[in-house]
Structures are given as C-alpha cells and as structure tokens.
C-alpha cells in the first residue's frame, strides 16, 4: 500500500479549497481537504490509481497517479480551468 497527498486549488481565483472531496475510484477511500487545500489518502493500492476531486460549483477532475508501495505520491489539482490537467509526480 502507498499514499496520495497533495493540494486542491481553484484555478480561477488561486484560492486553495477547503472541503473538496478526494477519492480513489474503485475503492471506498475518500477524504476532504483541509483549510489550506491539503489532503492525504492512506492505504491506496499499489499501481495506477484514478483520483477524483469534487467541489460544488466546479468541474470534477480525475487524474491517474502511480502509487508505489510504502511511498507517498504527491499531486496538485486545479479545478475550474478548462484544459488545465491535474499533475502527478
């Protein structure tokens, strides 16, 4: 198992989003972002995970990330700007 952590930002305003729902598709794993937009999902299955971020009033964003055993995968997600992909590392 690994983890996915990062931050969620409103691309239009530049503000980090509190209470955005972050989930891993195909699992029951989900969490909500903190006041600074940060989140962490633990016990994410190893391999390619599809992480979906939802925030009321903005388009939902799904991105694929590579999860490594015992490691944290960091992503930054921007919501609200068409054509701006989420990034993973």
Total DSSP helices? 0
Beta content = over 45%
Percentage of residues in helical conformation: under 10%
What characteristic shape results from the CA principal axes? elongated
* Spatial extent as radius of gyration: 12 Å
Tally of DSSP β-strands? 8
User: What is the terminal-to-terminal distance?
Assistant: 17 Å
Helix- and strand-based class? mainly beta
- The secondary-structure element order is EEEEEEEE
* Overall pLDDT metric: 92
Strand order of the largest sheet: 4-1-7-8
Biggest sheet overview:
4 strands, mixed
Low-confidence stretches are 83-89
Description of the molecule:
There is one protein chain. The protein has 89 residues and is mostly beta strands. The protein is built from no helices and eight strands. It has strands spanning 2-10, 21-24, 30-32, 38-44, 47-54, 61-67, 72-79, 87-88. A four-stranded mixed sheet has the order 4-1-7-8, with no helix packed on it. Strands 3-2-5-6 form a four-stranded antiparallel sheet, with no helix packed on it.
Draw up the topology in text.
Layout: E1 2-10, E2 21-24, E3 30-32, E4 38-44, E5 47-54, E6 61-67, E7 72-79, E8 87-88
Parallel strand pairs: 1-7
Antiparallel strand pairs: 1-4, 2-3, 2-5, 5-6, 7-8
